[in-house]
Write a structure and sequence with these properties.
heterodimer; A: about 300 residues; mainly alpha; about 0% strand; B: about 500 residues; alpha+beta; Dna Ligase, domain 1; five-stranded mixed β-sheet; four-stranded antiparallel β-sheet; 12 helices; 22 strands; about 20% strand; globular
Amino acid sequence: MLSRVAESIYWMARYIERAENTARFVEVTLNLVLDQPMGVDQPWRPLINATGDDEVFDKSYEVADAESVTRFMAFDREYSNSVITALRNARENARSVRESLSSEAFEQINSLYHYVNSAAQAGTSPDSPTEFFDTIRQHCHLLTGIFDATMSHDIAWHFANMGRLLERADKTSRILDVKYFTLLPTVDSVGTAHDDLQWSSLLFSISGFEAYRRTHHMIRSESVVDFFLLHNEFPRSVLFCIENTETSLAAISGGSTDPRHARAAKLVAGVKDKLRGTGASQILRDGLHEFVDSLQQDMNEIGEAIKDTYFR
Amino acid sequence: MSVIHDPISFENYDSEGFFDELIEASGKPRPDAAPLVDVINRLPGGDLLRRQAAIERSLHRMGITFAVYGDSSGTEKIFPFDIVPRVVGWMMWRHIEAGLKQRIRALNLFIDDVYNEKAILNDGIVPRDLIEGASTYLEPCVGLKPPGGVWCHITGTDLIRDADGAVFVLEDNLRCPSGVSYVLQNRAVMKRNFPQVFATCKVRPVSDYPARLYNMLRSLATDRVAKPTVVVLTPGIYNSAYYEHSFLAHQMGVELVEGRDLVIKDGFVYMRTVEGPQRVDVIYRRVDDTFIDPAVFREDSVLGVKGLMDAYKNGNVALANAPGTGVADDKVVYCYVPDMIRYYLNEEPILPNVPTYICNREEDRKYVLAHLDELVVKPAGESGGYGMLIGPHSTAEQRAEFAVKIKQDPRNFIAQPTLSLSRMPTVIDGCLKGRHVDLRPYILHGKDIWVLPGGLTRVALREGSLVVNSSQGGGSKDTWVAAEPGHGEVDT
């Protein structure tokens, strides 16, 4: 398979996942605001800070509120990580390798892009933002299903799978990091309804609330961290993403003993071992933020290794 | 929305003095077309239109589109399709096939000659500076000796018929002729949506084109290579014929590559794959000559591969078509093709040229300038039907403009009488109307020459229009060549 085609498929999948995750970030924050007791700090500024793009935001928007942040993160065409930009990039990549995708997959990417594009062109925030983001999420579920069911799980599919999983692992750990930061438990708030609410909304953002309940029942910060990072069965958990990335990489190298495959495989195995060998309480003791930071660095390295091995 | 239509029939169809491909002047169908006409006449009301609509939907879904340069919406359009097929009798086809084979043999000999011995120039048959001064005469190709002396592996020759039904060659397309994907898809959608008409005629199949194309391309690799790797080189998704590049690569089961996927290493061509660099032995290049190698031709080209010409000259990769064929793909050089046939083959042309005036010749130029309102004037190097003057349809102002252009650059213009092109019944606004058509058969030249039975029939959809090109409002039809009695495979 041509390197250029593999690279386009990989990035198409990453951008779709990115769009979905950004939509989830905003959606969960919108939901949170609705249940906030009066007098509690609004979560918008921390969300912007979490993206790392607060400087970009501040150039064009005066205030961080529901409307401006929604507009920035969903519709801002100048912002490289907005939903519309990510979908545009996904679509461009898909177009250039259209023959490698099923026609249904291509049509669905197209239709998702047009949905968001029309909303963006309307110029104002959607009337019902939660409905809007919910629809995006549904579209993405549909796309995942189409990819899984209408494409042979061949090398092309595995590159898409890896792209999606690596992006998901990165964004999931990031969303945990952000929220945890803003949810820093104080002695007063631990165990309150307010605290529970914050954690619940975090779980909702990865569609994991029910799965979490089945595994852990009560909401405790330690269990939430465990669920987000170390659960190897829940599809949005970082460990799940890493283990399945390892499977796809193995499928791509096809059992070849050629040393060029070794670098990426070794890095992925390293992260897998790190996650398997750590407990949530350990992570919290040593510092969640530091752990997530190093995880993200590891994943950047994995991305670089994949690029060097397969896309040159 | 359901509208009751009157049944479509040929009853009131009038060929209006033009040579019609299906109907004689008397109004009776031609013998080869009679069963087809009968089936269509018997269709219940609305049936033909329904099938036409179903075909259009198929084409849209399949994404059989092309991009029109200069169209501001910048999007893709389906190449319009008309459901009434053209029927070519086997005897006429034999004549056409022989003429095409003869012509391509002569053209190959000509191209090989002008880049090597230049005998035809030395003997004064073709003016030297017409060739050596042409922008399409590529210096780096001088002295090249492609295997078997074949330069044009894939050719599309445009044919027309006049008021008497005689066949003329309008143009030779020797660089990157396109349209064969429409031929194949047209046949496929017809078989799917209108199968009953195939019982009316023993139609020769076209579906073996990709296999023959692949085998021809494969045969270009040197004998050193046991299992040659063939690729199709495309300029990319923004090229107007991209669909065809992708389709043919897919049908042949070969990779579709762009210039940036290829790299030269140790004098050989490699493509960048996930498994590492993989050697390429034959390239079906759908990139224009001057864009294929920035080290030798246009240095601003991003569509080519640096060092490709060297690899080619050293015999390490085969290119179809060879670079340099553009020298014969020129409307002025076209005028000399009958002379080439006589010179190289010692034969009379089987298929004549359309009578053509060469504006570079003083006599011709005088005539042309005095008769602009009767002639079709064409710039020598353009394609797609652009930049033409259609005398009888023009205004005095347009003619004056052209007169200036001709005087300023006479070498660049030729003129031909407006021919009474043949027509065909075409579905327009719910009934059958006559529209002008041409025919582009496709010829493959490897170790031997093979002509695809039929080709692309292009139809000018606008009433009275003679311009059939896709880029200017043309459409296409399925083209049937009737099998010789007792001969070979047919499509059922």
